[in-house]
Specification:
Blueprint lengths: L1 E5 L5 E4 L17 E5 L22 H6 L4 H8 L6 H23 L6 E4 L7 E10 L6 E7 L9 E2 L2 E2 L8 E4 L4 E3 L14
Length: 194
């Protein structure tokens, strides 16, 4: 490779050709540019196609026999997937959370009026349209048809319909954010604008 030094207005200054010299020993100023010329004979794009690069491969059984690997360190230190106690604890916590979520969801009935109270967001009123599990995320979800267009969809996600409502009126929220009650539907005057 060859290195050339240029000023900010692209005037050639000199070649940077002393291999043992430090960059600070050249007359480089703010805004100067170092231009690199590749004389290795490599064609443009030669190294972008990684399918032609020979890769080192080792079988899982051979990798397990080595003591100087990240996997052996994690096993010795009982980290990540190799910490059975932590995995069991997390699974128990997840199961407990799912049971609590299920109990909250079972107390909510389709067709009931509700208010969604999520921290950092304004309270939103609507009607419960769906209660249960979904294909898009694990856990229990409550499908809400809002009284005004504060939602994200029309009751369907990823091509699966869970309930019917107008576009931007539907939302799915976790049961802990849904408060059941006699929340009258407010007239926001949206129909008058049409």
């Amino acid at each position: 490779m060859e290195l050339e030094l240029y000023t900010p207005d692209d005037k050639f200054v000199m070649k940077l050709d002393r291999d043992e010299a430090l960059l600070g020993s050249y007359p480089i100023d703010d805004g100067y540019r170092i231009h690199v010329i590749d004389r290795s004979g490599a064609t443009i794009g030669e190294y972008e196609d990684v399918s032609r690069v020979e890769k080192f491969q080792i079988s899982d059984s051979e990798y397990d026999k080595r003591a100087d690997t990240a996997r052996s360190f994690m096993k010795r230190s009982k980290l990540g997937q190799y910490n059975k106690e932590e995995i069991m604890k997390k699974e128990a916590e997840l199961e407990q959370k799912l049971m609590e979520e299920k109990a909250l969801a079972e107390a909510i009935s389709v067709g009931a009026r509700c208010e969604v109270r999520a921290s950092g967001q304004p309270n939103k009123r609507g009607t419960v349209m769906y209660v249960g599990s979904t294909e898009f995320k694990p856990g229990y979800w409550i499908g809400i048809k809002y009284d005004e267009p504060l939602g994200k969809h029309d009751g369907s996600i990823s091509g699966k319909r869970y309930f019917e409502c107008q576009p931007k009126y539907g939302a799915f929220v976790k049961p802990q954010y849904v408060t059941m009650g006699d929340f009258p539907e407010e007239d926001y005057g949206l129909d008058d604008e049409m």
